[in-house]
């Protein structure tokens, strides 16, 4: 069976886009949680701002990877995937701090 060389980069590009949208939803939920906080709004706002900055960083990484996949012969992911994983882990720490806080 012949493999379609265009199918895998297309699936990977779609996966990066889905992940970026899911990350945006996490930021929106964090904003909602901070907006409904009774106390500690400044700290919650700072965590939400940090999470939003992490989302922007992830958006840049995803865009770089999608651009690389658009090439005729996509190059390996290199440092994009480990950096994206680090950004997601940092966002998870922000989310844990938001959940654990007194707000």
From TrEMBL:
Protein name, as recorded: DUF202 domain-containing protein
One annotated Gene Ontology cellular component of this protein: endomembrane system
InterPro entries xrefs: DUF202
Membrane topology: Multi-pass membrane protein
Limits of the DUF202 domain: 4-68
Compartment(s) of residence: Endomembrane system
Main location: membrane
Swiss-Prot/TrEMBL keywords: Membrane, Transmembrane, Transmembrane helix
Transmembrane helix keyword on record: yes
């Amino acid at each position: 069976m012949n493999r379609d060389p265009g199918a895998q980069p297309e699936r990977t590009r779609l996966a990066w886009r889905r992940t970026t949208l899911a990350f945006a939803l996490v930021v929106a939920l964090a904003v909602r949680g901070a907006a409904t906080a009774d106390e500690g709004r400044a700290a919650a706002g700072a965590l939400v701002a940090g999470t939003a900055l992490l989302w922007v960083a992830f958006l840049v990484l995803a865009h770089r990877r999608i651009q690389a996949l658009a090439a005729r012969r996509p190059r390996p992911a290199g440092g994009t995937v480990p950096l994206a994983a680090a950004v997601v882990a940092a966002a998870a720490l922000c989310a844990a701090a938001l959940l654990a806080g007194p707000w």
